[in-house]
Each structure stands twice: as C-alpha cells, then as structure tokens.
Amino acid sequence: MALLTLGLNHVTAPVALRERVAFPVDHLGDALGDLRRQHPGLVSESAILSTCNRTEVYAATDRPDQAQAAIQGWIANHRRVAAVELNEHLYALPGEGAVRHAFRVASGLDSMVLGEPQILGQMKDAARCAQEAHSLGTNLHQLFQRAFAVAKEVRTQTELGAHSVSLAAAAVRLAQRLFEDMGQTHILFVGAGEMIELAATHFAAQRPKSITVANRTIERAKTLAERFVGQAGQVSTMPLADLPSALDRFDIVISCTASSLPIIGLGMVERASKARRRRPIFMVDLAVPRDIEPEVNRLDDVYLYTVDDLGRVVQMGMESRRSAVAQAEAIIDSRVETFMKWLSARRAVPAIRHLHERAGSLRDAELERARKMLARGDAPDAVLEALANALTAKFMHGPVTLLQQPDAQPPSDMEGWVERLLPGGR
Known about the structure:
By secondary structure, the chain is of the alpha/beta class. It has 17 helices and 10 strands. Helix 6 runs antiparallel to helix 7 (138-157) and helix 8 (167-178) crosses helix 13 (307-314).
C-alpha cells in the first residue's frame, strides 16, 4: 500500500482557481463517497483537506500511478474545472513526499502564515470527516495521528509560532494605513465563523466606534457580537438581507462566509460608495470561494484585499523565523523516517499472516498424524521424534529449495542470514 497526496495551494494556484476547486465542509462526506464509488478498489483510503489556501486529496492505494490519474480526473469532474487548467496547478506527492507534506502542513510550515495553528484544527476536521465517511483506513489514520503529534512537537520545541503574523493582524495594519484614527471607524463583519472571530478580535483591540456582525443566522451573530461589548462604542447585529441598504454606513468590511457565490456584488458596493460621497471603504475578503466580487477593486474609493494579498504582507516578516523553520524541518525529517519504517513493516503484514497460516496447517497435519500413531500404540518417544523430524523437514523444505535454485542470490553474510532466519532455540 502506497500513500499519495494530490492538490493545489496558495503557492501553485491563484485564489480564482482555488475557490472553484474548494469543497464545502458539509459536502466532504458525500465527495469521499463519490470518489470511492467512482474508483472502487483503486483508492483504498481517502481524505480531503479543503481550506481557503488549499485543496488536497490524501489517498492510500496499491496502484499510485493509476490512482493519481483517476483522482486528477475526479477532481476536475466533481468541481467542474477543465482538466487542462487544473493539472497545470496540481502537485502530486507519492510515498515519502506525501508523508513529509502532511507533517509540514500540520506544523504550519506550508501555510501562507508561517506557523499559524489554524491549519492543525482543519486537518483534524478533515480526518474526522473521512472517519465518519468510512474512508479512513489504518494507513491514513496513522498518517494523520503522527502529523498531529509532529505539529505538537514543533510547536513546543521551536519558536515557529512565536513570531507568527496572522492574516487578521495584517488586515489591521493595512487598515491603519488608510484610517489614521481607528477609534473613529465603523466596522462590519460578515459571517460568524472562526476566521471572522479571529479578525474581530484583532480589530476590536483598536477600540472602533462601532462593530456590527451580519450573519444568516442572527443567533450566531449575537453570540459573537456579545464577546466585544465594551471594546467598541457600539456593538450590534443585523441579518444579511439588510446588507444592501446598510453597507454605506461602514468604513471597514471584513467578510468570510461559506457561500459558494459572492454575496457582495459590484453594484451593491458602487451604490454604497456613492452614498458615502467618496469616503473610502476598506474591504477584506477572507473567504474561498470569495464573498466579494473581484470587480469591486476597480472602484476608486474602495480598497479590496483578498487572502492572497494579505499573505504577501505576512511574508515580509519571514526573516525572524528562519532558525525556527530549520529546527522544525529537522524534527519533521526524523519523524518522516520513523513513519516510513512503520509503513515498510506494514507491507510485510500480509506475507507474515500467510506464513503463520501455512505453518499452522503444517503443525495441525503433523499433530493429527502423531495422534494416530499414539492411538495405535506406538511408543511416545518414537512419536515425538517422528513429529519433530517431520516438522523440521517441512519447515526447511521451502528455504532450502529456494537457496538451491540456480538464480538464487543469497546474501554475502550467509551464516548471519541463517542465524536471523532460524535463531537458536536456547
């Protein structure tokens, strides 16, 4: 059984493609079931990790080359993306490459924000979804569990996360360039998920004049908004349906929902901009697929940033983390080697099981023969000697025949090899 990872991320593909390939979280189980039905017997185990920065399929297969082509075609068909366009941005990582990649992703080394911890939770969610979909077998289960252990080791033994600058923090820095006094701004958060909560925490620290949370489920909006009472002059909520008529009230708009289509269009923002009489609007779209139509960026008084834009800001702080990265990579190298040894040992399990079954059959046959000898009155010592001789002869027949074949190439250390094969009985 071999491991294979196939996917694309913020390095290999632009956000315009990533949003088309992204799998909605609540559809992951159905997608895994569809992959299994489309390629029964070829993809033995599978899991899908889909975030704003990456979409990856982790698989275990006996035929990695065929599985790679099958998964590529499946992603293209399932997400309705032209295979030629998709394959240009995909990476395929077989064997040890798949293991190393999983460990680096879990540890935050492959993230847009180096060392960020959010990806670890997303990987755990991916593993749980695969488990619930009955597509997670022994090999991928071990891969994920060891990836989680490596991530913990990297976080506790290095300073990788200590200097991490989040996308939310980068967004605040960009907003501060536009608004000299953040305390006078009115901020709207669209959505109520983890990314919005993180962004709201950073912006609330600037003590804005008001914070409003808009969400389809107003109860979730209220739960999030209550956390920031006292950190802004005013805290309120509103349903998403009110967004078109209320957008002009806000200086800063941060959006991250699970919508598969943009919820803030060019026309809506254009009307809001006119109503604001050229006062600027700072907008951040943290969603993939995007919540805000990219054409909005054409408007003169609107400053729109995507996750990729924020990622470029974050990368400017790389220098202080290089030594931590080297330490983390060393830890990963060691753990990859350990995992590959475990995986190699796993390949011998079917042969070992078969060997035990054959040995058991030989033992049972000779025991039955010995019992018959005892039943007809043969001397016990003679029966024991016959049993021992018969078992020895049968167990030795295979190895001796193999060594006597003309094309056999026994190891140079023959005596040592025999000692390992048939250790002494003392």
